[in-house]
Amino acid sequence: MTELFGIPIQALLGQLLLGLVNGSFYAVLSLGLAVIFGLLNIINFAHGALYMLGAFVAWIGLQYLGLNYWLMLLIAPIVVGLFGIILERLFLRRLYKLDNLYGLLLTFGLTLTIEGVFRSFFGVSGQPYATPTLLQGGVNLGFMYLPIYRAWVVLASVLACLATWVVIEKTRLGALLRAGTENPKLVEAFGVNVPLMISLTFGFGVGLAGFAGVLAAPIFQVSPLMGSNLIIVVFAVVVIGGMGSIMGSIVTGLGLGVIEGFTKVFWPEASSTVVFIIMVIVLLLRPAGLFGKEK
Fold first, then answer.
1. For residues 68 and 162, what is the distance between their CA atoms, to the nearest angstrom?
2. CA distances from 136 to 73, 168, 243 (A)
């Protein structure tokens, strides 16, 4: 078997796939955070809990309503998005004129509340979610075995990220969103309902977290703690890519997932900290992040 640096190529390719899968979740989640922070200037620490909520909505839909994976891939992000709009209208709207720290503390409290509610109903043990029949099995590529579902996760995540980037950066709607956050009174003068637009933007951002939760359900067990185990790394990804940078979140999320995967091969002890080491280096050399704009 062909080796590279004494490690079988098959093992390296397997870690590359694992890194791309993890990077896909990092990209989608950090993209949602970037949309919310970049357009609304809110640091949403509840993003991990809403990712968990998306997975649980999919699981509940399958277990109690008989709704399959494909339906829940559409329904769960909408449910999570609507829940996010309710949170924005009830709580976050009161904090827009205050320091970002207040929003961070509020969303941290919401995280603990949401996770506590789900722990009281479902405990801390994970709930299995079956892989959809169409995506079961794998393909033998000769040099490695490619699980179909994991390939689908990477494809779906990249398509969702690119579609979001196109909408925000290349369409009139995206221009209105950016203008509404920079000069809301001017945009309102053109007949645009800015408060509604802000609510929908927040709902869309957390809807991305719900979408990632549905993708994650067949891979990871659906658990109330699944978001808290991931959100710290996702925040590091956002910082490295640049707070509020859409493309930065996509590229950095995928890239760091691959780096993390290869680190597990060459230096396993550092695999859980490599993202944070990179974050420290980036902050020292470029405080605004790799794709962020220096003020």
1. 26
2. 17, 34, 37
DSSP assigned state of 95: G
Cα 94 to Cα 101: distance, rounded to the nearest angstrom: 13
| CATH 1.10.3470 is the classification of domain 13-121+137-285 | yes
pLDDT of residue 3: 60
The SS3 assignment for 146 reads strand
Let me know how many helices (H) and strands (E) the chain has, helices first.
Answer: 11, 4
Specify whether the backbone of 221 is left (phi greater than 0), alpha (psi in -120 to 50) or beta: beta
| Burial letters 103-123, b for 16+ CB under 10 A, else e | bbebbeebbeebbeebeeebe
CA distance linking residue 203 with residue 268, whole number of Å: 38
* Cα-based angle 211, 153, 18 (whole degrees, multiple of 5): 125
Measured CA to CA, the distance from residue 77 to residue 4 in angstroms comes to: 42
In this prediction the pTM is 0.90
Residues linked to residue 250 through DSSP beta bridges, in sequence order: none
**Those residues with Cβ within 8 angstroms of residue 269's Cβ, 6 or more apart along the chain or in another chain:** none
- pLDDT, tens digit, for every residue of 122-176? 888 888 899 998 988 888 777 667 789 988 999 999 999 999 888 888 888 777 7
In the prediction, which pLDDT does 74 show?
94
| CA quadruple 202, 43, 241, 169: dihedral sign | positive
Using alpha carbons, list the distances in angstroms from residue 192 to 4, 68, 183, 187. 58, 38, 12, 6
Give the start-to-end residue ranges of the domains of the chain. Answer: 13-121+137-285
* Amino acid identity for residue 161 in this structure: C
**Roughly how many angstroms between the first and final C-alpha of the chain, as a whole number?**
52
